[in-house]
Amino acid sequence: MRCVRTGCNAGIRNEPRVGHRLRLRPIYSGPQGGSQVGLSEAKADAGIEPERKQEKQPIPAINREKNREITGNTGDTMTQSQFQFITYGVADGLATLTINRPPFNVLDIPTMEEVNAALDLCRAATDVKLLVITGAGDKAFSAGVEVADHTPDKVERMIEVFHGIFRRMQELPIPTLAAVNGAALGGGMEVAIACDMIVASANAKFGQPEIKLAVFPPIAAVLLPRLVAPARAMELLLGGENIGADEARAIGLVNRVFAKESFRDEVAAFVAPYLALSRAALASTRKTIRAAAGKPFGTALDAAENIYLNELMATEDAKEGLAAFLEKRKPVWRNC
Questions:
Q1: 35-39, 81-85, 209-213, 254-258: which has the minimum mean pLDDT?
Q2: How many CB atoms within 10 Å of residue 336?
Q3: Residue 335: pLDDT above 50?
Q4: Residues with Cβ within 8 Å of residue 273, at least 6 apart in sequence
Q5: Residue 305 appears among annotated catalytic residues
Q6: What are phi and psi of 65, to 5 degrees?
Q7: How many CA atoms lie within 13 A of 250 on its CB side?
Q8: Where is pLDDT greater, at 77 or 270?
């Protein structure tokens, strides 16, 4: 295993175990569990001022939708109204998954199980064009995984559930967007960079501080050099320092930076053009980009041609799009 990572330099518990990765995360308590040790350090590292009330934030407007049944790996079902630590909804082709444990939106096992259940539903849905993942409030996107879930009786389940998030995100047929509304540190940053695109509020911070505790973040070690220049990825992973939203955009990690006060509205405006497009075209394009990544040109082109000819051109939307262009009319997507 690896200790949970959240950017705090206090209260680490290391329990090496064969076949598992190490994470690091500060010990923290309150409604999110853990110990009071390290709370002030966590806030200081994240640039978060103290918050006295630990109340859940209202669900953003883009999250509101009637309850849906969600099935996880165990076969048990949940509806949105049964979620305690996240909110999930679909409206007009947009799925929104919000980690709802402010102020730090820490991921414990029950929260991650709900995230995975929502991702399972998102993958199965045929009416979703884009998934947005965000955090409740405006102080943190997510500060990582709960340290209390690293005890011997929980660690294997924690690893399984946490890694399940990334496996599900990779398998989604639709594009994903991280709406980073504050600190994304350690494991929280890894969730963000696992998305296809990232938008951030002006107060957002990104960091992988694991090196300061003599460990490293395996997921970020794999993904970050694919997203930014290798030398810059080396600097961030080897130095362990946080960077702000503007710097994250300058190095190509973040697509857009929006004002904190208008962040939700700006995110809605950012996603609107994607929602006007064909789901089939979005899914095929995403699949092609991922299939071609890191491959020699000829191999990548073969993969792109195969998807284009054998998958995309067999869709109703490809036929509709071409016909609408030739007939000089607006296309009517069937998203299939």
A1: 35-39
A2: 10
A3: yes
A4: none
A5: no
A6: -165, 160
A7: 6
A8: 270
Q: Look at phi and psi of residue 93 and say left if phi exceeds 0, alpha if psi is from -120 to 50, else beta.
A: left
The residue among 102, 188, 173 whose CA lies nearest residue 131 is 173
Sign of CA dihedral 243, 249, 255, 258: positive
Identify the active-site residue in 146, 190, 261, 327: 190
Tell me which H or E stretch contains 234. Answer: helix 230-239
Which residues fall within 8 angstroms of residue 64, CB to CB, at 6 or more apart?
89, 91
Cis ω before 217 (30° cut-off from 0): no
The candidate with the shortest Cα–Cα distance to 245, out of 286, 284, 217, 204, is 204
Which pLDDT score, from 0 to 100, does residue 15 have?
Answer: 36
Say whether 146 is catalytic: no
Residues 6+ away with beta carbon under 8 Å from 14: 3, 22, 24, 215
| Cα(306)–Cα(303) distance, integer angstroms | 5
Which among 49, 51, 210, 316 is annotated as catalytic? 210
